[in-house]
Amino acid sequence: MTIELDRRLRIVERQLEQLLARDSGIVISNANVSATPTDAELDSAFGDATILYNGFIGLIDDAGAGTTVWLCAIVNNKWWYEQLTLAT
C-alpha cells in the first residue's frame, strides 16, 4: 500500500509542477537524452505523457550543454519531438 501511495503522490506532485509551469511558460529540462529522445527519457524529463496535459510544450537542453536542443510536445497523450537548429 505504501508503494501505491508513494506512486500516487509523485503523480500529484508532477501534475502540480506542470500546472505551475503552464502558468509560467515553457518548461526547460537539462536531461541527458539519446541522439533521438525516447518516450522513457521524455517521461523522465517532464512526466508521463498520459498524465500531463494535451498541448504541453517543453524544451530539452541535452545535458545542459547548450549544443543540442529538442522541442517536445504532447498531442493525444503521446510525445512528439523535433531537434532545433542554432541560428547563426
Helix-strand layout with pairing:
Blueprint: H1 2-24, E1 27-29, H2 39-46, E2 57-61, E3 69-75, E4 78-83
What would a concise description of this structure say?
The chain is α+β, with helices and mostly antiparallel strands and 88 residues long. The chain has one domain.
Uncertain ranges: none
The radius of gyration over CA amounts to 14 Å
Helix fraction bin: 25-40%
Strand order of the largest sheet: 1-2-3-4
Biggest beta sheet attributes: 4 strands, mixed
Gap from first CA to last CA: 54 Å
Secondary-structure content class: alpha+beta
Hey, roughly how much beta strand do the residues contain?
A: 15-25%
Q: Overall 3D geometry?
A: globular
Number of self-contained structural domains: 1
Order of helix and strand elements from N to C terminus: HEHEEE
* Count of extended strands: 4
Tally of DSSP helical segments: 2
Q: Mean pLDDT score, rounded?
A: 89
Task: List key phrases describing it.
single chain, 88 residues, alpha+beta, 2 helices, 24% strand, globular
What do these coordinates show?
With 88 residues, this protein is an alpha+beta fold. The chain has one domain (2-83). It has helices at 2-24, 39-46; strands spanning 27-29, 57-61, 69-75, 78-83. A four-stranded mixed beta sheet has the order 1-2-3-4. A hairpin with a 7-residue loop joins β2 (57-61) and β3 (69-75). The longest helix is centred in the first third of the chain and has 23 residues, at 2-24. It is globular and about 55 Å long.
